[in-house]
Amino acid sequence: MSASTSAHDKSAQQSLLNSYETLLSRVEHMHELANAEQWAELIDQRTSYVLLVEQLRELDMTVSLDTAALKRKAELLERILEHDVDIRRRLVSRRDELGKLIEVSQRQRNLHRAYAPQQGSAVAYETDDADSSRSP
């Protein structure tokens, strides 16, 4: 029974490491999307990434790793986190960029609201003046 338990443990460890490798592959793809500024697709991928992380967290709590597997897990996590940090940095930069664009748009709208009624009134006065100059 010890041999079958050991084989089961190795299989569970390999399954867990495979899940981390899948996560790494996913985050590498997301990093490529961020570099290409494909924001909509990146956000779509991020949703499935978060779900994968949750599944991995649950699996991780049930599997004990030996020293070699722990080392491999640490290597994978380090690479995952490096990509994740850069993706987050790019997303924050994009958010700030969009915030500036929204601010400019709001200023333009406020200016339009402030001056558009006066322009309309000036046109009405000009029309009235033109009409009164034609009258005897």
- Mean pLDDT over all positions: 85
Distance between the termini: 116 Å
Number of strands: 0
What coarse outline follows from CA principal-axis ratios? Answer: rod-shaped
Main structural class: mainly alpha
Q: Provide the gyration radius in Å.
A: 30 Å
Q: What's the helical proportion of residues?
A: over 70%
**SS field, number of helical segments:** 3
Strand content: under 5%
Largest sheet: none
Give the uncertain stretches in residue-range form.
132-136
* Oligomeric state as shown: single chain
Query: In sequence order, what are the helices and strands, one letter per element?
Result: HHH
Characterize the structure shown.
There is one protein chain. This protein has helices at 2-35, 39-62, 67-134. The protein is mostly helical and 136 residues long. Helix 1 (2-35) runs parallel beside helix 3 (67-134). The protein starts with a helix and ends with a helix.
Descriptive tags:
136 residues, mainly alpha, 3 helices, disordered C terminus
Question: What's a quick, concise take on this entry?
Answer:
With 136 residues, the protein is mainly alpha-helical. It contains three helices and no strands.
List the helices and strands and how they pair.
Blueprint (H helix, E strand, L loop, with lengths): L1 H34 L3 H24 L4 H68 L2
